[in-house]
Each structure stands twice: as structure tokens, then as C-alpha cells.
Amino acid sequence: MKIYKQPNGRWKVRLNLGFDETGKRIQRSFSSELKKEVEFWVADQLRQRRDGSIRKVINTRRVGDMLDVWLEDHVRLSKAETTYHSYVNIVKGIPAWFKKMQSKEVTPAHAQRLLVDWDKKGLKASTINSRRAIMVGLFTWAKRMGFTNHASNPFSEVAKLKEGVKDMATLSAQQLSEYLTTARTVMTTGNYAAVMLIAYTGMRAREATALRWSDVDFERKRIMVMRTAIETAGGYSFSQTKGKKVRVITIPDVAIEELKRIRREQKYDQVRLGWRNEEDLICTGVTGAYLWHSGLRRRHHLTLESAGLPSITLHGLRHTHATLLLEVGTHAKVIQERLGHADAKTTMDTYAHVIHTLQENTANQFAALLDDKKTAQPSGS
Fold first, then answer.
1. What residues does CATH 1.10.443.10 cover in the chain?
2. d(Cα 322, Cα 360) in Å, to the nearest integer?
3. Residue 21, SS3?
4. Which of 119, 222, 232, 255 reaches 20 to 30 Å from 55, CA-CA?
5. CA 350, CA 356: separation in Å to the nearest integer?
């Protein structure tokens, strides 16, 4: 589900509400000049579906049909909107041979074959394991709903792929400084604002592009991360962050000054080019348009090339922020709160390779400390 603004200025939404008694998909759409009216309509439709006014059945027990109902009846209602759209894309990539199977006929051998298919497509082991976990969740849900009667979950019977140690490409402090200096020169103001925010706060890229000026407390030097951008073929919208929690991130004086400069330049562009920032966005195109992730990612890589720096992903700026904080001894709990991880364990697991390196350095520092003490002791007579 997405509520988006059409070129004519009206707000529109399209809903998938499951299936009727004949197995036909129920789809409804609504538009209005007021976004709030669309939101009320959506709430009413979802209420009708919950109380049974809108009937939902699965006409067949094919995996493809089961996937559709699982997405709309479970994932969309229980997961963050960003997760829902991510799952939709994953389901689209499931091969037709698997979707056409009767759900009760799926065996561990079929589950293994699906993982092999993903491996042949060149997906990373970590990605395949993540998808395996999603399929485990699907068949667990299906059995609970009575759609399957497997004695055991077919995907639980398949072993995870060996991932090895994660090699996370990041920049050093010096390299990050060079990157931001170059970005300030070669990027447009909106693109620079996005990468600067990611580098100084560790927020996700789509959280940066969803950030509003009203989310910044210039006096207390902090940012409220309240939402994330959702991008689909039909346009863009904004939703809750991945963890569905608002978090507060402190920012340094240099970032505050940069934001003040960016706001002045944005206001100048509004007057010069005649556009209005109706959505109060910090990161915008030159003419005030929303900053799409694909364009930001492309300019990020061009900036790395211009600066002569090693290639890292746009998400690598977030990893760089966390890695540099770990290197200066910041507690994992603090980093977890800045990044918006569910718990400190997630942070520790994600950056285990960094922590391992720091442990080696700590061991050497401790040994050096003892050596210094021995040297300082007077020799016996």
C-alpha cells in the first residue's frame, strides 16, 4: 500500500484486500485532494477487512496464492512498510516453478533447489540465508493458518549457507574527510546534504531523504529521526522508520553549521527558481523535487571517483560512521541507539569484525602497559 501524490495534485492509494469467495483478488483505489481523507478511507477499508465485511479466501493452495495472502494479511499488517515492500520484491523474484507448486507438496528438496537457484543468480550467501529465513516464516505462518499440514517446516530442514567473515568496506577518518570535502564541491546542495547527514549521524539513506527541517533542533544540536522514504514504481511516500521508533541523534557543531548553510542556499534557490518546499524536506533536487535513492547513489559513486577514494556503497557511509565510533571507544549501546538497531546485540554482530580487530589492539596495548611498568621498576641489588 502506498499513498502518493499524482501529477494533478490529488492524493491516491491502491489497496490489495485479499481474495473473494471465487479466488479473485480484491483491489480498490481511492483519491482525494486531501491526504487525510485518503488515510481515513484506508483505515475504514482495513477495519472492514478485519471484521469480515470483506471476505478473503484462497481458491487454490498453490504457493503463489499463499504468498499473496501472506504478504497482504500478515506481512503488511505486522511489519514496517519498508519491510513489506522489500518482501514484495523478494516474492517477485521467486521462480515460477516454485510458485506453481501445491503448498502441501513442498519438500526440503524443493527448498534446497530454490536456494540453489538463488545461488546461481549470483546472490550472496548472506542474502540467500536472509531469504531462507523469510521462507521459514512463511511456512510457519501457513501451518498456523491451516494452509499446510507439514510435519516439519521444509525450509527449516535445509542448512544455511556458509557466509564466512563479513568484509564491510568503509572509509578511514581521513578518507571520509576527503569525501565530504569533494562532495561539497561536486554535488548539488541536496545530494551533499544527504551524504553529510549519513556520515555524521549514521542514519539510513532513505531516512536522510525523508528528513524535514522541523526534525532538526538547532539549539540543542540534535535530530529527530521519525520516518523513512518509501520508493515504488508508483511514486514515493513516507512511513515509520524500520524499527517503528523515533530516535534522537546528537550532531556536532560542524554539521549544525553546514545545515544552516544548506537551508540558506535552499531558500535562495526557492526565490531564484520559483519553487516551494511544501514537504519541508532538507534533501531536495535543485527545483525542490524529492531526492530519489538511485540518483543519490549514482552521485555518491561519482564523488568517490572524483576524490580518488576506494569504492564503497552508499550504505557504507553508515558503516563508516559506526566503525569510526567503535575505534574511538564509543559504547555499543550508544552506537545502537544512533543507528536505530533493535538491540545492542545486532550492533555487536554487525560489527564483529571491527570489534575483533580492536580486541587485538587492546591486547597489545595491555601488554605494552605491563612492559612500561616493568621498565619503570628499579632493578634489584
1. 173-356
2. 19
3. coil
4. 232
5. 12
178 Cβ neighbours under 8 A, 6+ residues apart? 307, 309
Task: Classify residue 6 as exposed, middle or buried by CB count within 10 Å of its CB (0-12, 13-18, 19+).
Answer: exposed
* Per-position b or e across 222-251, b if 16+ CB within 10 A of its CB: ebebbbbbbbeeeebbbbebbeeeebebeb
For residue 328, the SS3 value is coil
Angle at 234 between CA 236 and CA 135, to 5 degrees: 90
Give the Cα separation of 164 and 312 in Å (integer).
20
Kindly state the helix (H) or strand (E) to which residue 92 belongs, with its residue range.
helix 81-92
Classified as helix, coil or strand, 281 is strand
> Which grid coordinates belong to 311?
569504492
Looking at residue 331, the DSSP 8-state letter turns out to be -
Pick the CATH number of 173-356 from 3.20.20.70, 3.40.50.150, 3.90.1150.10, 1.10.443.10: 1.10.443.10
C-alpha cell read off for 35? 491526504
Give the DSSP per-residue string, 172-226: -HHHHHHHHHHHHHHS-HHHHHHHHHHHHH---HHHHHT-BGGGEETTTTEEEE-
Rg (CA), the chain: 25
Helix, strand or coil for residue 5? strand
CA 123 remoteness from chain centre: 18
